[in-house]
Amino acid sequence: MCDQVTGRIFQTADGGPKTYFTTSVDYASAIVRVDNDTATPMSVTIGLRDGQMAGGLVEQGQQVSFDVPGIRTLSVGGTGGNGICKGFYHIRLRTNIAE
């Protein structure tokens, strides 16, 4: 079974990270896609159920996907400079179905 969450990223490029998604549900795994529609690279941080972090840098015009276990949070930050960071995030949340 899968749930989906989609939203718009919109923040200043020089600000700190902004949290766009948070959950306390124990999802088995998730595919997180971030689309960057601006010239400023975005730093993506995905908090995992076990306390670890995943993520990376999404450059101008890129769509980057992360396949992660047990997502808890999604945060996005600009990497500096003037202007606005904007784009989209898409999260496909997968649950285990008990047999």
Give a written overview of the molecule.
The protein has 99 residues and is mainly β. The chain has one domain (2-94): C-terminal carbohydrate-binding module (Jelly Rolls, Sandwich), CATH 2.60.120. Helices cover 0% and strands 64% of the residues. The model has no long low-confidence stretch (mean pLDDT 91).
Summarize the structure.
With 99 residues, the chain is mainly beta. The protein contains no helices and 8 strands. A 4-stranded antiparallel β-sheet has the order 1-8-3-6, with no helix packed on it. Strands 2-7-4-5 form a 4-stranded antiparallel β-sheet, with no helix packed on it.
Question: Any descriptors?
Answer:
64% strand, S-Ena type endospore appendage, 99 residues, Ena_core, four-stranded antiparallel beta sheet
**Range of helix content:** under 10%
Strand-residue fraction?
over 45%
Largest sheet: 4 strands, antiparallel
Number of domains: 1
Radius of gyration: 14 Å
CATH H-level homologous superfamily name = C-terminal carbohydrate-binding module
Low-confidence stretches: none
Main sheet: which strands, in order across? Answer: 1-8-3-6
What is the H-and-E element order? EEEEEEEE
Oligomer: single chain
Structural class estimated from helices and strands = mainly beta
The name CATH uses for the topology is Jelly Rolls
Number of DSSP E strands: 8
Q: Averaging pLDDT over every residue, what do you get?
A: 91
The CATH class designation is Mainly Beta
For the terminal residues, how far apart are their CA atoms?
Answer: 13 Å
Q: Can you tell me the CATH architecture?
A: Sandwich
Assign an overall shape.
elongated
Helical region count? Answer: 0
InterPro entries: Ena_core (IPR025055)
Pfam families: Enas
Protein name: S-Ena type endospore appendage
Organism: Paenibacillus hodogayensis
